[in-house]
Amino acid sequence: MTLVANKNKKPFRVGMVGAGFMAKLHSLSMNNIVGLTNDPDAKFDLIRIVDIHAASAKKEAKRWGWKESGTDWKTVTRDASIDIVDIATPNDSHCEICLDAFANGKHVICEKPLSTDSKTAELMARKAVESGKIHMVNFTYRAWPAIAQTKKIIESGAIGQIRHFEGHFLQDHNNDPTIPLHWRFQKGPAGAGALGDVGAHIIDLARFLVGEFDSVSATMQRFIDERPLVEERTKKGAVEVDDFTSALIKFQNGATGTIKAGWALPGYKNDVFFAVIGEKGSIRFSWERSNELQYFDSSDPSDLSGYRTILLGRVHPGAELFWFPDLGGESGMGVTAQGMGYGEAFALSFNHFVDSLKSGKSASPNFIDGLRCCEIIDAIKISAEKEAWQKVHLAKI
Fold first, then answer.
1. Where is each Gfo/Idh/MocA-like oxidoreductase N-terminal domain found (predicted)?
2. How far is CA 218 from CA 133, 197, 379, 387, in A?
3. Of 67, 111, 260, 266, which residue is 20 to 30 A from 203 by alpha carbon distance?
């Protein structure tokens, strides 16, 4: 089905469901797109933000310039004055909101993971495609200049056939046992713990850079079995999800890999790491040094052989929007190493969303990418339970 582009050049009228932490980053990004791109047609009109907690919605509306706030998400999905639904709610609520949004002719951007399981994610992907509307899953790191540059290097053939991918997303904040039993620690609303929360990102990057998964062999661990209840801190409830997951990967193209996802590993603050190893070279990246990319070329002479560090600047995909002046030289490079951060990553994701809204071309990553991630998460969970290799089932959409 042909996607529907925004051809009237009016502001993109958006409603947001969820007023938690992501509301800050999404709102900031939408407010800044016009200034960063110098494109008046990239303007968002922030119509309404809703949340089950009225005070949270009202607070974020005032903070970021949303015209209205409320508690009923259907006032977003069914409002004729809204073109786009932005979903940043617990994972088990994504499906119902998305389906209603598509049924009412809205474009949708949804936080990851797309759903708590591949069955509902498949339904969401099918309805997204059938709607003819733009649909995007906010795998933020895919848009980061270092990762876009990695994709560019791989596609150029510079490192040759990929042999191995090593990746992890590790954090330590949930190593604190006093953190209460919020929804991310519960299987129903979350689907998975560290695997679904941060692991979804490294799974998406592995697919984006290397290709489709064929099969996985995984282990899952929980380090903290009980946490204080949110409403009554003197009592505790059972944690139902993983704190750490590790998996071996076989890709369809013959490459192998490893992925790790953890949120209770002391010393790791927010480390999104990968190394892509090919027959002629390698590329590696860590978010802890997010403005650098390391590249190894096997053709270098032995006395110069080793990883070189590339400092991000305006010549790298997406970085030209930010803080790198063009000094007018013939190389067009300007100044590098001014530095970008987490907020800029979200701005880049929303800029990609804008490009799709304007052109009518499929967003990347879209709901099919979101489905693939959920299929891999399900396979990892089954593998860990069975203690055996598990094929990844890929639904045809």
1. 12-139
2. 36, 17, 9, 7
3. 266
Whole-angstrom distance, CA of residue 384 vs CA of residue 386: 6
- Kindly report, residue by residue over 35-92, the tens digit of the pLDDT: 999 999 999 999 999 999 999 999 999 999 999 999 999 999 999 999 999 999 999 9
Phi-psi region of 231 (alpha: psi -120 to 50; beta: other; left: phi over 0): alpha
d(CA 182, CA 9): 42
Hunting for tokens 């891999």 — which residue is that? 376
User: For residue 386, what are its two tokens?
Assistant: 């069975």
Q: How many residues does the chain have?
A: 397
Element (H, E) at 197: helix 194-197
Helix (H) or strand (E) holding 308: strand 308-311
Q: Cα(386)–Cα(283) distance, rounded to whole angstroms?
A: 34
**pLDDT 10s digits, 256-309:** 999 999 999 999 999 999 999 999 999 999 999 999 999 999 999 999 999 999
Asked if residues 364 and 142 have their Cβ atoms less than 8 Å apart, the reply is yes
| SS3 sequence of 22-55 | HHHHHHHHHHHHHHHHCCHHHCEEEEEEECCCHH
Assigned token pair, 339 = 């530095």
The Cα–Cα gap between 2 and 33 comes to 26
Question: Phi/psi zone of residue 178: left (φ > 0), alpha (ψ -120 to 50 degrees), beta?
Answer: alpha
My answer on whether omega of the bond before 113 falls inside 30° of 0, hence cis, is yes
Read off the tokens for 81.
């004055």
- What DSSP character marks residue 393? P
